[in-house]
Design a protein that fits this description.
With 95 residues, the protein is an all-alpha fold. It has a single domain (3-94), classed as Orthogonal Bundle (Serum Albumin, Chain A, Domain 1), CATH 1.10.246. The protein has five helices and no strands. It starts with a helix and ends with a helix. This is Transcription and mRNA export factor SUS1. Pfam families: EnY2. Its main location: nucleus.
Amino acid sequence: MSTDAETLDAVRKRLLETGDWERIARLLRQRLEESGFDDDLKDLAKEKARKAGAPSLAQLVAEVTPEAERLVKADLREALVSELEAVIEREVERV
């Protein structure tokens, strides 16, 4: 395993241990719902499915994912990154 992967695993583990993973996941889910992401994603998936006929789930996910990632608003991405940075900084200070 590379150092980057090991570091990510260690951060993920610590986030789970502290409960920050769940808290940040709830925050993300709430902000996505507030922004209308769910409805936009459903509409996008329906449109792609209609155009493709009867795609498999894997095909639909592969086609929708890049566009879905672009649907996440920049301010939400920035807020999530800021939250993660704050948690990591707090945890580093404890060590």
